């Protein structure tokens, strides 16, 4: 993607509180994007440092935020390594099974149906 398009996408994301930005690790550092409430990792970061930087896009300036990490079972070793490095006791772990996740994704993609997903402790 050309740099001009990247800048335009980032500005649009900054200006619209309902916008979604899909990015690589390049966006994990050096960008100050205020008011990010959620970061969704679609794969386990290769290092704990990358996880911290990616997740650091949310909960800035003492605000609360939510980081969600999706992983394939083949990435479990990376997740375990990251948890050891970052002190796993600080994480709230919610395990979603792939088949169930795929079912929900297909339901959400059905535009004729409305869903509200609520997670509680």
UniProtKB/TrEMBL annotation:
The cross-references to Pfam families, in alphabetical order and at most eight, read: Helicase_C
Q: Might you report a single GO cellular component term?
A: cytosol
Asked whether the keyword Transcription is assigned, the reply is: no
**Keywords recorded for this protein, A-Z:** ATP-binding, Helicase, Hydrolase, Nucleotide-binding
- Spell out the InterPro entries in the cross-references: DEAD_box_RNA_helicase (IPR050079), Helicase_C-like (IPR001650), P-loop_NTPase (IPR027417)
Q: Which GO terms describe its molecular function?
A: ATP binding; hydrolase activity; RNA helicase activity
Q: Which residues cross the membrane?
A: none
What SUPFAM superfamilies does the record point to?
P-loop containing nucleoside triphosphate hydrolases
- Residues forming the Helicase C-terminal domain are 1-104
Q: What is the protein name stated in its UniProt record?
A: ATP-dependent RNA helicase mak5-like
Q: Which organism is it from?
A: Spodoptera litura (Asian cotton leafworm)
In the UniProt record, what gene is named as encoding this protein? LOC111351024
């Amino acid at each position: 993607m050309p740099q001009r398009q990247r800048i335009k996408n980032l500005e649009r994301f900054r200006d619209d509180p309902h916008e979604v930005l899909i990015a690589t690790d390049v966006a994990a550092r050096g960008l100050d994007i205020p008011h990010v409430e959620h970061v969704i990792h679609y794969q386990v970061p290769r290092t704990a440092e990358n996880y911290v930087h990616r997740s650091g896009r949310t909960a800035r300036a003492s605000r609360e935020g939510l980081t969600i990490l999706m992983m394939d079972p083949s990435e479990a070793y990376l997740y375990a390594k990251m948890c050891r490095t970052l002190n796993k006791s600080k994480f709230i772990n919610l395990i979603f099974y792939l088949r169930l996740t795929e079912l929900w994704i297909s339901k959400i993609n059905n535009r004729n149906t409305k869903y509200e997903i609520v997670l509680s402790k």
